[in-house]
Automatic annotation (TrEMBL):
Residues 59-68 have a biased composition (Basic and acidic residues). Residues 1-68 are annotated as: Disordered. This is Uncharacterized protein. Residues 1-17 have a biased composition (Polar residues). It comes from the Eukaryota.
């Protein structure tokens, strides 16, 4: 993928860059003024140079006065309080949902247990009736 890496107008004015780098490079190549680069294996014997990891300090375009800071702080504080109240409301709703799910599962398991018990009794009665053994002896 090709990308345009030419400097912006702002970069050209602040860094005193020529209008067209390509034209200047073409002129150097045509006139033979460009320095030749000769690489040797010694160039790659050491580690590459490390770049600084410090972030450049950027100044805001317009300095904020105390009124702007206090207004911004108030806005952030109000937003924080609103978020806290919404989180508390969501926590209550989640707890309510959890209680509802637990109760629903408890009811479902009671129904399953009851149906299972009825099915076992029905099956036991059918077995005893077919075998001819009284039902009383089966449960002892």
């Amino acid at each position: 993928m090709l990308r345009n890496i030419s400097p912006t107008a702002f970069e050209q004015t602040t860094l005193n860059l020529p209008e067209s780098f390509e034209n200047e490079r073409d002129n150097e190549v045509a006139s033979g003024d460009g320095a030749e680069v000769h690489l040797s294996y010694d160039d790659f014997s050491g580690p590459p140079p490390q770049t600084s990891r410090k972030q450049p300090i950027t100044k805001p375009d317009h300095p904020l006065n105390n009124d702007d800071w206090s207004t911004e702080l108030k806005r952030l504080s109000d937003g924080q309080l609103e978020l806290k109240s919404e989180i508390q409301m969501l926590n209550k709703e989640v707890a309510s949902l959890k209680d509802c799910v637990v109760a629903s599962f408890a009811d479902a398991f009671k129904a399953i247990k009851s149906l299972s018990k009825k099915q076992r009794e029905k099956t036991a009665c059918e077995v005893m009736h077919n075998v001819g053994v009284p039902l009383i002896y089966f449960f002892w």
